[in-house]
Amino acid sequence: MRIVILGAGQVGASVAEALSSEANDITIVDQDSGNLAALADRLDVRTLTGNAAYPSVLREAGLEDADMLVAVTQSDQTNLVACKIARSLFHVPTRIARLRSQDFLDPELLSNDNFAVDYAICPEQDITEYIVKLIEFPEALQVLEFAGGLVTLVGVRAYPGGLLVGKPIRAMREHLPPAVDARIAAIFRNLQPLDPDGHTVIEPGDEVFVLAATQHIRPVLQELRRMTEPVRRVMIAGGGNIGMRVAQMLGKQYEVKLVERDRQRAETVAARLPDTLVLLGEATDENLLTQENIDETDMFLALTNDDEDNIMAALLAKRFGCKRVLALINRRAYADMVQGSQIDIGLSPAQVSIGSLLTHVRRGDVARVHSLRRGAAEALEIVAHGDKTTSKVVGRRIGELPVIKGAHIGAIVRRGSESEVVVKEGFLVDEWVDHVIIPHHDTVIEPDDHVIVFCMRKPQVAEVERLFQVSVGFL
Length: 475
Fold this sequence. Notes:
By secondary structure, the protein is an alpha/beta fold. The protein contains 15 helices and 24 strands. The protein starts with a strand and ends in a 7-residue tail after the last helix. 44% of the residues are buried.
């Protein structure tokens, strides 16, 4: 696939890194020649220095022959103009734009008659929703949803004292209620992936990814580690776009304080967030932290635009007694270094938002993609199409499928064969209900199943995509 990426910042670099290893022909355009040189040194990509909104630059980048445009510069206006030019002048089939402002997220504005954006991604909103999920599950390192929220994947660190720690995975079935089922989809030990089976013994410190129906995820987590008390008090460092969005989503349910250093910005945020106590000051000021009872705070979120400030603020909050701390860290090397130390979660924004983009890049009918372990692994939700004559998976038992080492089917979401009576908004109604299946070797994949597949290493993704592709004979 020929892909032109506009923007060599954190998001653009992460996209290029994710796609360059999959035999794609990639060109990256940016005005910063230093960023481009750094990418060209470590990735097999072509680079071009220039303004991404100029038709001449886009033509030189090869947009006439491109299959996809990914516009992820820092400027919403540049991304929108590039998508319009890509359709009007170069007839690029697929156009993706990063849009930071909610003002532009209007379907009519993005239609082909206007800016011609096929898919809009909003990294700030993706990160906000991700952080809110981590607050709902404070013991988790990652919380990811599939199939419209019916299935949840939670990554946790196994601690001594967990019911399953020190025992083989198959022992989990003995502790769960009969109606609850789950799958340990992946284990990372000392930063290296394991290929788990029923005999794999979970050790303290393992990073374990558990998949289950969303309604069953809490009893499953109790198998692996002691449960953390629910979060009630949250302190946020930084009143930028992400900090304000997070506070806005949390304000109704939690006691939220937000620390902002700039007086004008603090006044703006305070006016927009009536449920949040906005404090003017530095989040790295220990006097401010102690005065605001950081030792009684359940979760501290360092969400400024400065990596070093976020790390220092999170370390101080932890030192002064905050139960759990998260730091937003743009430099991935920093995030890898600090997570698991005094900082509970080092969050790389580019790695959170890249899943939304990869969903539109993957071949086949891919409904959702999540990046795991900072891009080292992926989880895909793929819709199975065809029949036994046109598909390699439909109509076959999982035990019959070709073995892709390190790739596992973790769950299947299937539409029920008949409607059921359910309670909706206080009324009994007939609805078609989707069912979550934790599959075994004799489970047969049916047409239109949403199959959640884990790939422990990036090279396995292309093999999984090929496995689910339908032959030419399928209409």
